[in-house]
Structure formats: C-alpha cells, structure tokens
Amino acid sequence: MLERLRGLGLLKAGGRQRTDSTHVLAAVRTLNRMEFVGETLRAALEALAVAAPTWLSGLVTAEWAERYGPRVDDYRFPKGEEVREEWARQVGKDGFFLLEEVYAPATPTWLREIEAVQVLRRAWIQQYHRDEKGVRWREGKDLPPVHHRLCSPYDTDARYGIKRGAGWTGYKVHLTETCEPDAPHVITQVATTDAVVADTEMAERVHQALTDRDLLPEVHVVDAGYTTAALFVSAHERGMELLGPAPHDSSLQSRQNQGFARGEFTIDWGTQSANCPGGHRSFEWWEQKHHRNGTPVIKVFFSAEHCRPCPKQTQCTKPPTGRRGRGLTFLPRDRYEALKAARRAQDTDEWKERYAIRAGVEGTISQAMRVTGLRRTRYRNLPTTRLAHVFAATALNIIRTDRWLTGTPLGGTRTSHLETLVLAA
Questions:
Q1: In what order do the strands lie in the sheet with 324-330?
Q2: What CA–CA distances, in Å, run from 109 to 42, 43, 117, 139?
Q3: Do 241 and 220 form a contact (C-beta atoms < 8 A)?
Q4: Count of Cβ atoms closer than 10 Å to residue 175 Cβ
C-alpha cells in the first residue's frame, strides 16, 4: 500500500514523521511464579495424556490428577508462606521426575519433541535449582534476564514489561506516521517486540527501516524514550533531525538540584582536560567503556589539593580523601556536544512550538486500539502478532486515505463539557 500511495504522490521521503509505542496484552493470563510452574507442568501432562496416554498412565497417580487436573486459576493455593514454598518444591520435584522419564533411554524419543515438554524443560531450568540438597526455588538474583524468562506455557514469546509503574504480559508495538498538513497521515513503519525491549533500542531500527524504503524524514519527532546522545549523532549522520527531549543530566548535583552539575564544567578537548566553576583544571583524563552497557565514556578527576580548600567545595562534591577530588564522567565529544545542543534547544519557545506536533501520534494509537483492537493480540506468538499489526496499520492507512480523498476533516481533540464551559468563561 505504501508503494501505491507513493505512486499517487501522497507519500514521499522528507518532511516530518513521528513515532510512539504502546503496550499490547498477550492472549494469555498473567501468572505469578507459582501459577506459572503449576500451569506449565499441567500443560505438559495434558499434551502427554493426548500423545501417549498408555505411557503416561503408568507414571501418574491419583494425587497428580488432583493436583494438576484443574487449571491453575481454579486451584486454591495453600495459605502460609512455608506451605506455599513446600507446594512449589513438590511441583518442582514432580516436573523433574516427569522430565527424567521422558528423557529415559527406553522412552520413545519423539515425546521429547512435544512443544509442551520443551517448554517444561526451559521453565524448570529457569525457575528451579536441583543439587545434592534437593529441589528449591531460584532466588530473584538467580533468575534469568527478563528478555529470556518465560511468562506463560502457552505463549513463549510473551514477556512481562513495566512502563511508568504499570505492568503487563505481552508485547509492545511502535507506530511511525507522517504528519504533514498537505498529505494524509500515513503509517510508514510498524515494529513489534516483546514487552521488555526499550524504546531507545528501537529508534535506530526504525530509522534503518525507513531508509530501506526511501521514506526517511527530515525531522523525526519522538518522546524522551527514543532519545540518547548516540541517537542524536546517528540521526544527524543520516541527514535527519531527531526532535525530542534530551535525557536529563544524571549527575548527583543535577538530581538534587543543588551544587555544580556536569554541564557547568568546561571541557577542553584539545588539551584533554576540564575546568571547574572554581577555575581549577583537572589532572587526570582517561577513556574506558561503561561497565553496564559498554558505551565509551571519558573520566576526569580534579586534584584534592584544589577541591579541599575550595570555598565552593560543599556545592560541588563530598570532602575528598586521597589525592582525587571531584570526578566527572562524560561522553565522547560528538555525543557530548550533540546532547548539550539538544538540551539548550529544548528550553526555547521555538523548539516547544515545533515539538507540539508529537501529541498527534497519541490519536493514532487511540484509533488503532478502537478500530483494530490493537491493545490485545489475538495470537500466541511474536511473528503472528507482528503480522497482525501490519494488517492493522494497512487498515488504518486505507481509512485515512479514503477520508483524505473525500475531504473528511481530521477529528479534533476531545474536550469534556466541563472543560468547554471553563474555556468559554
């Protein structure tokens, strides 16, 4: 459809486009850890009861049927922390017993290939320890990263995500649309991920997809979730402006809104040194990789001989010990200057006026939810959910193109009767 719109002159590269994301609920229940392991074992037993009833009947007992017969949401868990932990350990023992029997040499090998059995094996590796002390829960620090942690035995692609304090099990979809006044607002890119992929990880993928389609805009309007110093630089290298709020200064002084923040120091790139607000020059400069994400950073330190007697020391750093005083960590020059320019620009009225157009993408997400049911997927895996989102975007593009060609005006922002009354007054 995008090719057809391009042929009609209703879509082209350049101009402005905007992107935002929203959460998508999986077509499965949200389960806690106890519910998850119980339902995972029950699902494996159900699959084996259909595929190999004779083999399974020789293993299970009436106690198993009582414990794993009903769905976990119909099960009444025992009360008390210790009793519940014992229940979880028993489920773990039963699961390991079943896996040992499935992988026994005398067992038909095709039983191992049943999807529910494979899910059981992955889940037990993630949720349990088993050693000479027996079977026990993994502690939180021993659980795998959320990118890999299963949340449901019925949708192994769904993940548990949290955004602004709200959690959900499922996916996330990113919609990019044009927003020029003289053309229909067309969705140009759809990206679907699991729920834990950060927006910053998707910005470069969206830019590359638009580049491959020859639809890269001149200005890409986004919220703070899609901006980093590296993305400001890479967008500029593509010949595009990334218009969005810059990340906040993370220095302690900036967070506490008192003292000298990182931005109040002057960097002398030629001499590889920094000057503090008190007029002193740093004595150490070295480059390294950030210990968490591998981002290249530069560290500088000021001498404690200057920091200790400085009258502004209490506004800058803790009383120094040893030979080092205040230390700074900042990005390489291209990223540092791009971030500094973005922070300076966003304080101007001109930037705020240009950025106001981003709000329109909220209406696109609202329309997608109301018209296509985007909020909850109908499918139980990521590839099919992604395909459904492409169909949803295509449907919206058909609706929008029809309204453009028939001269139907865009819908206005909804205003309550009370707000209307106050505005009129």
A1: 284-289, 296-303, 324-330
A2: 21, 19, 12, 33
A3: yes
A4: 25
Which tokens is 341 given? Answer: 């320019």
Closest CA to 345 of 202, 242, 253: 242
> What size, in residues, is the chain?
425
- DSSP for 139-208 reads PGGGSPPTTT----SS-TT-EEEEETTEEEEEEEEEEEEE--TTS---EEEEEEEETT--HHHHHHHHHH
Token pair listed for 71 = 């769905």
Sign, Cα dihedral of 245, 246, 250, 255: negative
d(CA 210, CA 226): 16
Distance (Å, whole) CA 127 – CA 138: 6
Residue 269: which of 237, 294, 298, 226 has the closest Cα? 298
Geometric angle at alpha carbon 271, from 270 and 277, rounded to 5°:
105
**Percent helix / strand / coil, the chain, rounded to 5:** 45, 20, 35
Cα angle for residues 33, 36, 40 (degrees, 5° grid): 145
Beta bridge partners of 167: 162
Angle at 233 between CA 229 and CA 236, to 5 degrees: 140
The answer to whether the pTM exceeds 0.85 is yes
Where does the pLDDT of residue 353 fall: very low under 50, low under 70, confident under 90, or very high at 90 and above?
very high
Q: What is the largest CA-CA distance in the chain?
A: 84
Those residues whose C-beta lies under 8 Å from the C-beta of residue 29, and which sit 6 or more positions away, are 35, 73, 152
- 191 and 209 Cβ atoms separated by less than 8 Å: yes
CA atoms within 13 A on the CB side of 380: 9
Q: In angstroms, rounded to a whole number, what is the distance separating the alpha carbons of residues 92 and 153?
A: 15
pLDDT attached to residue 300? 92
CA distances 1 to 210, 263, 314, 376, 401, Å, are: 15, 47, 62, 24, 10
66-114 pLDDT tens trace: 888 888 776 677 677 788 888 889 999 999 999 999 999 999 999 999 9
Residues 248-283: b if buried by 16+ CB within 10 A, e if exposed: ebebebbeeeebbbbbebebeeeeebbebebebebe
For Cα atoms 11, 12, 18, give the angle at the middle one, nearest 5 degrees: 80
| One-letter amino acid of 217 | P
